[in-house]
Specification:
Length: 508
């Protein structure tokens, strides 16, 4: 046991002995959040296909169309939409009577402005495909495509991008992009009150939210990186929800009267990513045998039981099985003997020094477990945990130089996941294969769903055969709630890891 872990356990023991704190006010719900809350996540234009930003967007902002309970593409700020027979024109009817937090009325002008300034995941693809965005009248907007594109709605109207999440044009033009991140104004069910970066986030109900007035009047998100502390706070009644607990703490929740474990299997796949090394001819990772050795080296079932109580689903793919056009790929077996043999065949009978292994700090125990398994077959790594926003930024900006523990939880379909992680110009890719890139272009133009499925399945087979990724699992996200919670919002939206929709939450 490490000294840090021992200190953490002792701290937990002491805090649990302490007197129970007073319950929060009936009008408030409080979360212990496992990550630092970054201002970059307050702007939909910065959405990079990572699910974390949706935690904020569902609260502060609203979208034309978005996943809701029972409907992965529910009309929201758009009352309705139509598609032309040739698939070249989409027209949306903007909901009347919607007001931003500052009282400004939302119109089609804000919708066009939000699309034009979007620069996150799939921005290039969307703008390459869309010929024009036309304001028909204050409450109607028309998207004209350059060619029929069957995935327009998937890329525009799901969390695969943030292009359909609407910001107020006049306000953004007044304060600028940086000013907007510091003091975001949205049309969502909650508005931000003074923000303490990296510590907490306080939101108050938007009484004029169009769908309904939120029952919970104030939400407080506290940044608590240490999982033992999150559980202790839940036990003391200081918070109502604790996100992302590890296996032993999940068992502790089960044993504690008044607490409830809320596991959800999400669209979040995690995998060992070979980073830029896979594409460097001088790197050992350029050799498929080395990558396959790594994929065979770690015991996915054992990690699953230890970290997520068996709620995760080991997989051989980074595309969730529930996604449209996903190819079911069995997980690589745990075979350390074969891994060692492959390393020897590749010229590394004594193993190799793989250098830095970067990871999101909130999943450092998972990365540490994988790193230990890699070390057992001779692949020696040095773990580098990073705060989530910094890790995701370094990944997107291609500043990570070695291996990384990758993860993706954004909704969409197989094509949206391929676009980000399989092709050469993907936002999280360092390289690609010409045949996979060509197939991606072909499937985007294919209107026959069966033919698209064949092409997308072919991409996934090629990626698997070439060991582009070493998948771990579809994540079973372990959360816990306290006795005051009547409706946590966990699991209401299929495959979504966090509480949502926030306006439906209730306390007793």
């Amino acid at each position: 046991m490490t000294p840090r872990r021992l200190v953490s356990i002792l701290t937990l023991a002491l805090t649990l002995i302490a007197a129970q704190g007073p319950a929060a006010a009936q009008s408030q719900m409080t979360w212990a959040v496992h990550i630092t809350l970054s201002p970059v996540w307050f702007d939909p234009a910065e959405h990079t296909g990572i699910i974390t930003i949706m935690k904020v967007l569902y609260a502060v902002h609203d979208a034309m169309v978005k996943p809701m309970p029972g409907n992965p593409m529910a009309p929201s700020l758009a009352e309705s939409w139509t598609m032309s027979k040739d698939g070249m024109v989409y027209e949306f009817v903007v909901r009347k009577g919607v007001v931003f937090h500052n009282g400004d009325t939302l119109t089609a002008e804000d919708v066009k402005f939000s699309f034009d300034r979007y620069r996150g995941s799939a921005a290039k693809l969307l703008k390459d495909k869309v010929a024009s965005v036309e304001i028909v009248d204050p409450y109607r907007i028309r998207f004209k495509l350059k060619e029929a594109w069957p995935d327009f709605m998937t890329f525009y109207a799901t969390p695969a991008s943030g292009a359909a999440w609407i910001v107020p044009k006049k306000y953004v033009e007044k304060v600028g992009d940086e000013g907007f991140k510091k003091a975001p104004i949205g049309a969502g069910p909650y508005k931000l009150v003074p923000f303490n970066p990296g510590v907490d986030l306080v939101l108050e109900a938007h009484e004029r939210y169009w769908r309904k007035t939120p029952a919970v009047k104030r939400m407080v998100w506290k940044t608590v990186p240490e999982d033992l502390t999150r559980l202790a706070m839940l036990k003391r009644g200081e918070v109502d929800v604790a996100y992302s607990l590890r296996g032993p703490l999940g068992e502790e929740v089960r044993r504690t009267p008044g607490l409830k474990l809320m596991p959800t299997v999400i669209a979040g796949t995690q995998w060992l990513n070979f980073g830029p090394l896979q594409w460097d001819p001088k790197s050992p990772w350029h050799d498929r045998r080395v990558r396959l050795a790594a994929a065979l080296a770690f015991d996915k079932n054992a990690i699953n039981q230890a970290e997520t109580l068996g709620f995760s689903k080991p997989t051989g793919a980074i595309i969730p099985a529930a996604f449209e056009y996903a190819l079911a790929i069995p997980a690589y077996p745990y075979d350390p003997s074969q891994a060692k043999k492959l390393l020897a065949e590749a010229g590394y009978p004594n193993g190799l020094d793989a250098g830095e292994y970067a990871c999101d700090a909130s999943y450092s125990t998972v990365a540490e477990a994988i790193g230990n398994y890699l070390g057992a077959v001779g692949i020696r790594t040095k773990l580098r945990p990073m705060e989530r926003a910094a890790f995701l930024g370094a990944w997107k900006d291609k500043k990570i130089v070695g291996l990384l523990q990758a993860g993706a939880g954004g909704l969409g379909n197989a094509a949206t996941r391929v676009q980000n992680y399989f092709i050469k110009d993907g936002i999280y890719s360092w390289g690609g294969y010409p045949d996979i890139d060509d197939l991606f272009i072909q499937q985007a133009r294919e209107l026959d769903p069966k033919r698209r499925e064949i092409q997308l399945h072919q991409i996934q087979r090629l990626a698997h055969d070439r060991v582009m990724h070493a998948p771990l699992w579809e994540l079973g996200f372990l959360n816990a709630i306290g006795p005051r919670v009547e409706e946590s919002g966990l699991g209401l939206i299929a495959l979504h890891p966090y509480s949502a929709p926030y306006e439906d939450l209730k306390v007793k």
